[in-house]
């Protein structure tokens, strides 16, 4: 039974002052005890009642309301005219002015003020009172300012259901805006009320995004066109590519057709250097790298399948997670795969087999970030599993430098655009690490805990001073790096060059040595093969391989055990003489 | 009358002077060498600022009074000579 009391008020009475009046108590409902209902209940005996003898305390939280600010302008209009003068009538205003000018008071005042004013004007013209008299010397470098990173602004996902900020892109002109792609990358965690929108934020206004982008499927990656600051291209979760023009609204201008797009989420899309400025290429875990011209999105212009056997077989293909393209080397590009290999490719090759030039292995997990050093394009940074590694293009066997293994997974990384030896990495425990390889190689120079949840994406602004990182709950934090980490130190380029060369040489020597050892091994095993009876030539089938390995393993174990037994026997033998001595 | 003209013209021809405005106590521009919208803006804003400056000076010392107000900005210098009924505003580009 519902206890309801209905208040009615006429519409024309809204807004009126409330007049309260006293009323005596009225009994609305009286429920009498009904013993027959007791049959439905059992008496509970014993009852557990917890008692605690402590001070009663209560916790309160207060959060002020969000301060929404808006920018307005004021337009000044003429006023102050006496009642009889209409400010729009030229005649009346002129007449008024002439009248005032005839006034005695006016004349004497203006004369006097004029004198004062002239004095000051002449003063201004005679001496520049703000001139620097002592030329200041070069500012002495601040002594050992501790490197620090300060959070400037935090942009939160306005929707109820939080999604990961999977990709960030700065506006190419002056970096006043930041485009963030939101999607949920966890398998099957997509809920029905999850919004599909991605936003463009103005960094001064963290309360409300400046613009919304409405794709058909959530965007996993998003990039501004470096040539045209109004165009953005995005790769979505269902494999389609779409592009937006911010002047034309929130809907994509054009989308690629589903049949010709990727079969898996598009993890990275990059703009290419071309005369028209409309070429992009995209990579996805379905093993394909597709080239598009945004004017014609119905079909990709080119297609590359990342088959390590170079046969173009989609089943063998490695899934691509990151792409790298440097505008100074337009024919080469690199792809980071889910399997931990970096594939270096040449765009201009004639056959698909020649497109894949070489592969670099060394990581244990998917390569989330891949970037060439902006100052030394031969060296590139890869971020995967628990380490970040620096590679040299010439050394294919291993990386030339690497960080130690961390406790948390690294999810993204980037070089600093202003300092050749500084790079940033972010981890799944929410920390941002700034590494300065010239200063310290074992530990990050600066480690900042940005938030409690995992960080997923990182983008440094072009001036190297600011960076934005996006987290799993859609919070994008804008940080300012202390000036020590973003100003080029003297000699830095030379020192960095020396360091890279030194490490590259070291790896080359190691590689040469490995090759020698392998050659020796091979020649030795070939010799032993000739001595033994002919074994099965060519490759053994997997089962034979397994049995052979098992046999070897057991032989080794047996040998070891025998050695140990012999050792014990020897000990026993040694002990006997001792006893006999006694 | 002619002296007023002469004075104002002399001020205007000094080196670096961009504009001259004479405003009355109600904020109505009596004489100006700039265009109307700029004049109205300067007149309105500087009138209020001058009043505020004057009240500040008098609050600190009631015997004191504001004689001249100079505002230097990056681009130019605004000089205001206030009086009881009228105000003379000159915008000048200083020697640099």
Task: Map the helices and strands.
The complex is a heterodimer of chains A (582) and B (96).
Chain A: H1 90-102, H2 104-126, E1 149-155, E2 164-170, E3 177-183, E4 198-202, E5 211-213, E6 219-224, E7 231-236, E8 241-245, E9 254-255, E10 266-271, E11 279-284, E12 288-293, E13 302-305, E14 320-324, E15 332-337, E16 341-346, H3 352-355, E17 356-361, E18 367-372, E19 379-384, E20 387-392, E21 401-402, E22 410-415, E23 422-427, E24 431-436, E25 446-449, E26 455-460, E27 466-471, E28 476-481, H4 492-531, H5 542-581
Antiparallel strand pairs in A: 1-28, 2-3, 3-4, 4-5, 6-7, 7-8, 8-9, 10-11, 11-12, 12-13, 14-15, 15-16, 16-17, 18-19, 19-20, 20-21, 22-23, 23-24, 24-25, 26-27, 27-28
Chain B: H1 2-13, E1 17-24, E2 29-32, H2 36-60, E3 69-72, E4 77-82, E5 86-92
Biased composition (Basic and acidic residues) (chain A): 512-536
Protein name (chain A): Dynein, axonemal, intermediate chain 2b
GO molecular function (chain A): dynein heavy chain binding; dynein light chain binding
């Amino acid at each position: 039974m519902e206890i309801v009391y209905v208040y009615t008020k006429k519409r024309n009475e809204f807004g009126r002052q409330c007049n309260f009046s006293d009323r005596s108590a009225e009994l609305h409902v009286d429920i009498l005890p009904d013993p027959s209902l007791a049959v439905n209940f059992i008496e509970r005996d014993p009852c557990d009642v917890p008692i605690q003898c402590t001070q009663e305390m209560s916790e309160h939280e207060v959060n002020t309301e969000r301060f929404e600010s808006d920018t307005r302008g004021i337009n000044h209009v003429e006023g102050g005219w006496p009642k009889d003068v209409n400010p729009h009538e030229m005649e009346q205003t002129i007449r008024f002015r002439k009248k005032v000018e005839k006034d005695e008071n006016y004349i004497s005042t203006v004369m006097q003020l004029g004198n004062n004013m002239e004095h000051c004007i002449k003063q201004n013209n005679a001496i520049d009172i703000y001139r620097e008299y002592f030329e200041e010397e070069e500012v002495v470098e601040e002594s050992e300012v501790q490197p620090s990173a300060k959070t400037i602004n935090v942009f939160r996902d306005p929707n109820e259901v939080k999604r990961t900020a999977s990709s960030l892109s700065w506006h190419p002109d002056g970096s006043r805006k930041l485009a963030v792609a939101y999607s949920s990358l966890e398998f099957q965690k997509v809920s029905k009320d999850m919004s599909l929108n991605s936003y463009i934020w103005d960094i001064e206004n963290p309360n409300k995004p400046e613009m919304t982008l409405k794709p058909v499927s959530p965007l996993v990656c998003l990039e501004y066109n470096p040539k045209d600051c109004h165009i953005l291209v995005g790769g979505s979760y269902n494999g389609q590519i779409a592009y937006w023009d911010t002047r034309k609204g929130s809907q994509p201008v054009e989308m690629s057709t589903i049949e010709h797009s990727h079969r898996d989420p598009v993890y990275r899309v990059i703009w290419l250097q071309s005369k028209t400025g409309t070429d992009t290429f995209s990579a996805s875990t379905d093993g394909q790298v597709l080239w598009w011209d945004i004017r014609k999105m119905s079909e990709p212009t080119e297609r590359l399948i990342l088959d390590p056997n170079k046969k173009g077989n989609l089943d063998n293909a490695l899934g691509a997670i990151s792409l790298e393209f440097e505008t100074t080397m337009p024919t080469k590009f690199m792809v980071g795969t889910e399997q931990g290999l970096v594939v270096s490719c040449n765009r201009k090759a004639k056959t698909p087999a020649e497109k894949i030039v070489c592969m670099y292995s060394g990581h244990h997990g998917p390569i989330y970030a891949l970037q060439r050093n902006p100052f030394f394009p031969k060296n590139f940074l890869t971020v995967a599993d628990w380490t970040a590694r620096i590679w040299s293009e010439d050394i294919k066997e291993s990386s030339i430098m690497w960080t130690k293994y961390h406790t948390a997974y690294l999810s993204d990384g980037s070089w600093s655009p202003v300092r050749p030896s500084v790079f940033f990495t972010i981890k799944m425990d929410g920390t941002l690490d700034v590494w300065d390889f010239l200063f310290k190689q074992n530990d990050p120079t600066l480690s900042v805990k940005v938030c409690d949840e995992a960080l997923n994406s990182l983008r440094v602004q072009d001036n190297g001073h600011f960076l934005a990182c996006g987290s799993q709950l859609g919070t994008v934090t804008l940080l300012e790096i202390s000036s020590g980490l973003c100003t080029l130190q003297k000699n830095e380029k030379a020192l960095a060059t020396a360091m890279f060369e030194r490490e590259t040489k070291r790896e080359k020597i190691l590689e040469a040595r490995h090759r020698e050892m392998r050659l020796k091994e091979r020649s030795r095993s070939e010799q032993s093969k000739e001595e033994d009876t002919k074994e099965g030539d060519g490759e053994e089938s997997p089962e034979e391989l397994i049995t052979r390995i098992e046999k070897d393993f057991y032989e080794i174990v047996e040998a070891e055990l025998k050695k140990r037994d012999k050792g014990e026997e020897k000990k026993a033998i040694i002990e006997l003489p001792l006893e006999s001595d006694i | 009358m002619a002296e007023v003209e002469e004075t104002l013209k002399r001020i205007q021809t000094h080196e670096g002077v961009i504009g001259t405005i004479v405003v009355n106590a109600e904020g109505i521009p009596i004489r100006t060498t700039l265009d109307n919208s700029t004049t109205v803006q300067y007149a309105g804003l500087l009138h209020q600022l001058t009043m505020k400056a004057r009240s500040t000076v008098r609050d600190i010392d009631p015997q004191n009074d504001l004689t001249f107000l100079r505002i230097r900005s990056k681009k130019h210098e605004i000089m205001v000579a206030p009086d009881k009924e009228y105000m003379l505003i000159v915008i000048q580009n200083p020697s640099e």
